[in-house]
Design goal:
Helix 1 crosses helix 11. The protein is globular and about 45 Å long. The protein starts with 5 loop residues before the first helix and ends in an 11-residue tail after the last helix. With about 240 residues, the protein is an alpha/beta fold. About 10% of the residues have low confidence. It has eleven helices and six strands. The protein has a single domain, classed as Uracil-DNA glycosylase-like domain (Uracil-DNA Glycosylase, subunit E, 3-Layer(aba) Sandwich), CATH 3.40.470. It binds uracil. The site of uracil has 13 residues, from helix 6.
Length: about 240
């Protein structure tokens, strides 16, 4: 039987711990992978969609929102992170993932050797469901076209679905996130585009509530698969 490499396991455990508890900036001597050139035309198209979203009255969330949260980031991003729906902080600021879950997401992005503004971050719903309740089916149906239009413009190579709601919505399945995560699925954005690879993983808010080394490792494993798929350099400490 193969002997477990205890030193390697211990090193990985320590790295994992450092990984989610903080200070990636210090750790990242890794090179930044440059994204494609910033594309003004794409940005303009995304701004137009954001303007349409700002006026959207298609569902009841329009009555309770403070701000719409269309999403933000590099219009030419290779990776788009899709969450569930804005929470209280996002509703106030009109920006996605700016609360506690957002801070953890940003740490994950930085640990991947990227900056927040090198990816695109958005949600399946563009308005906050009151009290952070689950999205209702009609809200998902009305909001999906906005996400599809954004994805069609950005044309990312990988979509990371954060959490069960995003994964189930995008993949049109009822399978639990534990079964979906860890492998690539195909997401059909439109007939004019090849399917985009989609990696479901745990939502950062779930990770905050269930902060075990196993769960952190699972998310990091998923992100390493994303980096490998893109041919991007692994963070130095994660090279085998
Ligand atoms: N959770 C989400 O799913 N999206 C956000 O923007 C913030 C928290």
């Amino acid at each position: 039987m193969e002997q477990p490499d205890i030193a390697k396991a211990a090193r990985q455990h320590l790295e994992m711990d450092a990984f989610f508890t903080g200070d990636f900036a210090l750790k990242s001597s890794m090179k930044h992978v440059s994204t494609k050139e910033y594309d003004l035309e794409k940005n303009e198209k995304l701004q137009k969609i954001a303007a349409v979203i700002a006026k959207c009255q298609k569902c009841e969330l329009a009555q309770t929102r403070t701000n719409v949260v269309p999403g933000e980031g590099d219009p030419n991003a290779r990776i788009v992170f899709v969450g569930e729906a804005p929470g209280a902080d996002e509703d106030v600021k009109g920006r996605p993932f700016v609360g506690r879950a957002g801070q953890l997401l940003e740490k994950i992005i930085i640990a991947m050797g990227l900056q927040r503004d090198q990816v695109f971050i958005c949600n399946t719903l563009k308005c906050r469901p009151p009290g952070n309740r689950d999205p209702k089916p009609d809200e998902i149906v009305f909001c999906q076209p906005y996400l599809k239009q954004q994805l069609e413009i950005i044309a990312p190579e990988i979509i990371v679905a954060l959490g069960a709601h995003a994964a189930k919505t995008l993949l049109n399945t009822n399978k639990p996130i534990g079964q979906l995560r860890g492998m690539f699925h195909e997401y059909h954005v439109s007939d004019s585009m090849d399917p985009v690879k989609l990696m479901p993983t745990y939502h950062p808010a779930y990770l905050l509530r269930n902060y075990s080394p196993d769960n952190r490792r699972r998310v990091w494993d998923d992100m390493k698969k994303v980096l490998a798929e893109l041919g991007m350099e692994m963070p130095v400490s994660d090279k085998k």
